[in-house]
Amino acid sequence: MNPILEIKNLSIAFNQNEVIHNISYALNKNEILGIVGESGSGKSVSSLAILGLLPKKISKITNGSIIYRDENLTQLSSQPFQKIRGNKIAMIFQEPMSSLNPSMTCGKQVEEVLLQHTSLSKKQVKEETLSLFEKVKLPDPERVFKVYPHEISGGQKQRVMIAMAIACKPDVLIADEPTTALDVTVQNDIIKLLKALQVETKMSIIFITHDLALISEIADRVLVMYKGNIVEEGLVKNIFKSPKHSYTKALINSRPSLDTRLKVLPTIQDFLNDSISTEIVSKEQRKKNHDKLYNKAPLLEVLNVEKEYITKSGWFTKPQHFKAVNDVSFKLYEGETLGLVGESGCGKSTLGNAILQLDKATSGSILYNGIDITKLSKTETRRLRKDIQIIFQDPYSSLNPRIPVGEAIMEPMKVHKLYASDIERKEKVIDILKRVGLSEDYFNRYPHEFSGGQRQRIGIARTIALKPKLIVCDESVSALDISVQAQVLNLLNELKADFGFTYIFISHDLAVVKYMSDQLLVMNQGKIEELDDADIIYDSPKKEYTKKLIHAIPKGL
Amino acid sequence: MSHKSNSLKQLALQKFKKNFWGVFSFFFIVLIGFISIFAYVFAPDDSQYANQMHLAIHSKKPGYNVTMLTMPSKIKVKQNSFDKLFFGRKNTDTEIPISEYAIKDDVLVYKEYASDGLEGAEKTVELNIFPNNSPKDFIQEKTFLFGTDKYGRDLLSRVLVGARISFFIGFVAVLISLLIGIFMGSVSGYFGGKVDAVIMWIINVTWSIPTLLLVIAITLALGKGFWQVFIAVGLTMWVEVARVVRGQIISTKEMQYVTAARALGYNDFRIITKHILPNIMAPVIVISAANFAAAILIESGLSFLGIGAQPPMASWGAMIKDHYNYIILGKPYLAIIPGLCIMSLVMAFMLIGNALRDALDVKS
């Protein structure tokens, strides 16, 4: 079979710094090619190069060619490129929220593509747009045609984006992490849609993602990229069943499995050193541990907590209320990990913030060691902060860019007057840095000199500097690559064993939450859907919503 | 811990150093600052406010040359050297431009200088008023590099001394505007709600009054004089700073490191001063450079209108005011020289502002 798109010996450099090293691959007609890799592996850069969308000033294709239908795209000037871009080769981006123009109606934006690339009349364009909306299974296409992007949900926006991309019946569709920003259930729908569209139109799709399990559900063939190289290439089955490169093995295995619970998750380093531990936490061990945990009095008791927001308020209209957290009660025991899952907007982070007293709950009470912390004064709350801490989602924005990390970790100690002198504090900081796997050389460095995983470690170090009892992990590993995620999860578990922390682990990722937690709390629209032992919920979900959620997780092969 | 780390500040500094116009403007401003502080050292006429008048030789061209007779005054002024260095010599000597002179017996006969081909009056003075009876040291050739103004004062000296006002009004006005602006802006941005509404209301009201009118009103209330102008300009400029700070704080306080700081139990003062303000300094610095330039322009405008620095104090704006009608009389340099000074100083601040904006922009 003749490939429709062929990439030969492609190298790309950013400011003399080569990021893609001599890669070659081909895309056949009528196939879905998956490209997997972590952030910085060059998977997005190589696909942007196909469309000629690399930032011109700082990047350069230093070597190689991209051949589409006997035409070398690297040599093409911008005028003829526009005929190909969007018309023959189209792209779907990661963020549906920001890739649609907020000041144009959805219909207009799709029409624009058609007007640009086809010679249809205005009336035909509108008909075509509506049929496209039907094709991507948007509910009520007539309505979506007239509304602005903010009036539809994230999944629907991504459907509009797909409609836009397939408007000109492209030969090649590049989907760059099209579902990463979406909930699992929505992700599932979009994947199904893309597959159906591919079968119908017989176009070729390049599907880029960091999630191997996801790619196994959609792609025919997979490329694994690592640090600008293609390390492995082959059919999905072969890659999954018998991965050859140790990086691929690590990628497949670092993600917590849904069936067994490993004591320590394997990391890339383990695979490179061939030192994988396969110790499993057995059901009996878990049970024994739980019996011990639940015998004590609860550390935290959440009673009928509600959080209300005013969504609309005007001078003459009655304010409308929206309950982000609706009548939630649960108990948390010392030393346990409570998993909190739900899709975006279900109120899980709001609940976390209420426990942390960052956002006061509207009603209900939160008892910490028997004291209602919702009624504390400002200074008492500040003292309480020492006991209840948080680890944030985004390692890039959770550290002040102008304070060296050592000082950042030392500051909470100073504020809460822990330890006698600065010298003692500094020693402690170095201890903590070492504890989270960083060297003491890092004391005077600034956050921008670290990678995402390292920053998350620094964030954790700052959190544990206060020796808290309860830590809320709000999507703490969601922004991290899978291999780094495994390291951070291992670290969290080690710290828990060492210091006896209690975690509330908030995440949208059921697999991660299941691996971490003792109890699992499933939230939906502000309410508790189900609350039980994590294994029990996963094995025999009672509610329809939980079933749907578990079913939607990409399982891999 | 020997690792030398690059803070964002250092990175910005490195970037700034590469910008030619930025560095050039910086040194230009430093030079002007130095000159304005030591104005009386450099000025040919180091009398207080460079106010030595010679009406006979008023409004002469740059590079004008004349013989000058200094009549020592009998009044001895006591003045310490520090005062003399920074505020000029309190001078009671009279200077008389002369065209010719001769010593006859005990008297000095001289002919006063007169321009436009007129004959000056011949006068005599007894030699014993000069020390050692020798007037040699008191009769000298004098060159006016920038010419003389309409009172016959040395224009170069007045430009040098006038630099002080322009320079210091920049400093004082920007300082006042920063103090008020950052305080108001951070309080309103950080706390939001009713506090924000009240402060925004004050800001909007202050902003709706035309700047010049407000300064005039403040100077009228506080009295005329250059300190009043300093304060008045500062009081009008804080609104811009406050608005910028408020906007920046509103977006920065959503950053996770601010939430982290709250979760770690820091108090509001610490969060604002240690975690928010250092991160929003970039736009504040840029707007301060622009304010510096604007303050200089407002001051010269006020001096031009006659409510700025009062005579005999030298100020660039006032110098233009004194001489703008000479522009059509064929002596434009009297107004153009201080005009060019204002322009180059303002321009230097603008360029430095641009360079800082580029350097502090982390994105590129």
Write down the overall geometry of chain B: elongated
Strand content of chain B: 5-15%
Determine the CATH superfamily of the domain at 1-88 and 171-244 in chain A: P-loop containing nucleotide triphosphate hydrolases
What is the fold named in CATH at topology level of the domain at 1-88 and 171-244 in chain A? Answer: Rossmann fold
CATH architecture of the largest domain in chain B: Orthogonal Bundle
Name the shape of chain A in a single word. globular
Q: How does the helix and strand content of chain B classify structurally?
A: alpha+beta
How many H/I helices of chain A? 22
* End-to-end gap of chain B: 30 Å
Residue fraction in strands of chain A: 15-25%
Radius of gyration of chain A: 26 Å
Q: Regarding CATH, which class of the largest domain in chain B?
A: Mainly Alpha
Overview of the structural elements:
The complex is a heterodimer of chains A (557) and B (364). By secondary structure, chain A is α/β, with parallel strands linked by helices. Among the domains of chain A are: 1-88 and 171-244, P-loop containing nucleotide triphosphate hydrolases (Rossmann fold); 99-169, no CATH class; 396-467, no CATH class. Chain A contains 22 helices and 20 strands. In chain A, helix 4 crosses helix 5 (122-135), helix 7 runs parallel beside helix 8 and helix 16 (405-415) crosses helix 17 (422-435). The radius of gyration of chain A is 26 Å and the shape is globular. The model of chain A has no long low-confidence stretch (mean pLDDT 85). With 364 residues, chain B is α+β, with helices and mostly antiparallel strands. Chain B has 13 helices and 5 strands. Chain B has helices at 8-18, 20-37, 39-42, 81-87, 155-191, 193-208, 211-222, 226-252, 256-263, 268-276, 281-305, 316-323, 333-360; strands at 64-71, 94-104, 107-112, 122-126, 139-144. In chain B, strand 2 and strand 3 (107-112) form a beta hairpin. In chain B, helix 1 packs across helix 13 and helix 2 crosses helix 13 (333-360). The model of chain B has no long low-confidence stretch (mean pLDDT 85). The A-B interface holds A 356, 358, 381-386, 389-390, 392-394, 397-404, 411-412, 415-416, 440-446, 448-449, 459, 462, 466 and B 1, 3, 5-9, 255-257, 259-267, 270, 274-275, 278-279.
